[in-house]
Amino acid sequence: MNVYKVSELIRTVNLELFKYNDISVEGEVTNFTRSSAGHCYFSLKDARAQIRVVFFAMSARFLKFRIENGLQLIVRGRLTIYEAKGEFQLNAVSAEPAGLGALQLAFEQLKKQLEAEGLFDPARKKPIPLLPQSIAIVTSPTGAAIRDVLNVIARRYDGMHVQIYPVRVQGATAAREIATAIRNLSRWQLHDVILVCRGGGSLEDLWAFNEEPVARAIAESTIPIISGVGHETDFTICDFVADLRAPTPSAAAEIVIRAKSEIRSQVDHAVARLRHIVESRVRNYRHELRHLTSSDRLGLLPRRIASVRDRLERRRVALFRLLDARAKLLRRRLAACETPLAKYPSRIERERDRLRATVATLNAVSPLSVLSRGYAIAFSRVKNRRKPILDSTAVGLGDSIEVQLKRGALACTVDARTLGIESILPEVGDIKS
Q1: In the CATH hierarchy, which fold is given to the domain comprising 108-121+132-261?
Q2: 246 contacts 227 by C-beta, under 8 angstroms
C-alpha cells in the first residue's frame, strides 16, 4: 500500500484537478468578506451543496459591480486544494450576475446607493438660469453631439458665449476626464450653466456617465448642470444626479437657450399685461375721484380744515400763555431766594472770627504747644495701648517706654528711676558740713 505525505497527496490531487482548470460554476453568494488587500472570499451554494471561492484582488478589480450576499453569480475559474488548510476551493478569475448583465447590475447598485445618500433629491437641485450669459459644454469635440448643440444655440441665440471643455466620452479614462472637467468648471466660476453631452449608444458606450466619480462631481458642482446623454430612452446615473435631464444633446441646447423670438414675445406679453393693469387702476382711481368731487361731504372738507386750524391756533396761544406764566413764577421765586442770601457775608465773617478765637484757645491748652517748649510726654504700652506715665513707680527697670517729642518719638528703656523728691532734699555733703 502506497502511503502519501499530506503535501504529496494534495499536490497529486491538484494535478488531477488540472483538467478543471477553466470551469464556470453558478450559485448564490454567501459568507462574503473582503480583506484589506482587496481579496474577496465567499461561498457559492445551491439547495444541496456549497463550495469555497477565492477572488484575488488582481482579478476582482476588473468587476463593474459589487459582490453581495444573496447575489446569484456565474463564477469562472479553476478548482484547487489550498495546501495550508487542505480546503477544496474555486480560484475565480471572473464573475457575472446570473440572468442579468454585469453593467446593468452595477448600474442598479450605484443608483440605489446614491439615491439612499440623497443625490437624486429634487430639493438639492439648482435652478437653471433663464438666459445664461456663458455656457460650458463638457463633451467630445469630434462627436456629433457637439455639432448638434452648437447648431441649436446659434439658431436660437446667435452670439452666445460658449466654451467647449474637450473630454473623452467613452473608454477607460473617460469618467475621470469628465469628473475633472466638471470640478474645474465649478472651481473657475466663469459660466452660468454646464451642459454634459454625448450622443446615443449601447450601455457599454454610455458607461462613463454611470461611474461614481462623475456622479459625485455633478452633485458637488456649484454651477447648474444639464445632462443630455444618449437618446430619449437612455437613462444614466448622470441624468439622475444632474439638476435637469434632457432627452438628447439637442434638447439640452434648446432648454438652456430660449429663442430670442420667445423672449421677445414673453416681454411684449408682460408689457401689454402691465399696461392693462396700470390703465385699469388709473380708470378706477379717476372714477372714484369724480365720485368724491361730486359728493356733498367733499364740500364740507374746507370748513373742517378751517375749524381744525382755528382749534390748533387757540391751543398754541394757550400753551404760550401757560409757559409765560410759569416763567414769571420761577423768576419771582428766584428773586425771593436772593434777598436772604445778601445777609450771609457779614454773618459768615463773624463766625470765622469766632472760629479763629476757638483755635487759638485750643492751641494754648494743647499738649503739642507744651511740647514745642522742650517738654516731652512718656508713655507705657498696656495691651497695645499707650498710657501716659504720671508716676515713676508705674514702670520698672528695664521696661520699654515711648517718649513723645514735638517732632517724632523715642523708644527708650528704663535704666533708673527716682521718687520725685531729689530736687528738694539736700545733698549728703551739705548735711555734713
Answers
A1: Rossmann fold (3.40.50)
A2: yes
